[in-house]
Amino acid sequence: GGVKKAGGKNAKKTSSFTWNAAKPVKPATTTPTAQLAATTPIDGATAATATAATASGVGASGESGVGELGAEQATVTAAMSATGATGAPAAAAAPAAIEEESAGWDILVADCVDPGGMLRQGVLDDVRLASQLILSAGGVVVPSQLTVRAMCVESDQLLGENRVQRTAQGGLDVSLLDRYSVRSLMSVDLPNVALKTITKPADVMILELIALNSEYLYEYEWETFQDGRIDAVAYWFVIAWSPDTEPTETLPPCTHFQGAPHGQKLGIKEQDACAPHWRQAAWMLDTPLHVLKGQIIKVGVSCVGSYLSFKVLS
Fold it and tell me: The whole model's pTM is what?
């Protein structure tokens, strides 16, 4: 006489199950109902569903072969109803909603200056985005401030490292290769470079790490204190860790530049323990600039992302 619908009167209503018509239907297995019940531990409602599946398959095809698509859909719907009726969860429990968002981090520590003496690639962008996205209100950035300290120098040594050595080319003129030379030199051991200072060191840019911009542009005016030639702008950093601590300079503090004669190396003594692990950097001018004592030199200083550059304006 027919099979009673699984679930009973207490079964919950389920939404209709829509099968993807484009997906090929696999043939139904011909495992007898008794064998299915014996091999798989199921409750009464699920057993009734399995019986309905077998009966539907045989009735639709006339043999113990493949059932029609409607029989398979009815089987799946009946199984869902039976599961709801037995009290089993119809779907995996959703994760508990987060009641409140994280307050963020209180301290952001950044290693900004590369041992080679330049800003690490992309570090200012990283600090700026991290301060906006993951730092809590009132949080602090360590270090709190970076100051770019620079001076104009004349140096045959730096010029020779950045230009073609004409005397070493066997008489060939390969000076056109100078147009491909880089402007920025890193890992400069400034205390041990033969140079002549044309201007005094000065702070040309200050970066507050808690409120960084994506781009900076400054102008600074230097007064030359002796005649000479400006080949490069040598620079280093002063790192302020917090308002209450002594800042760290990435140039050995026992180095003295002012009044050094041309060609003299300004080395520090080996027993001095004040040398930091950082080197310094230099920005080479496209064309050396000859200046006189007391002349005012205006220099543009820019920082885009984490890339520092200098340009003599007048």
Answer: 0.62
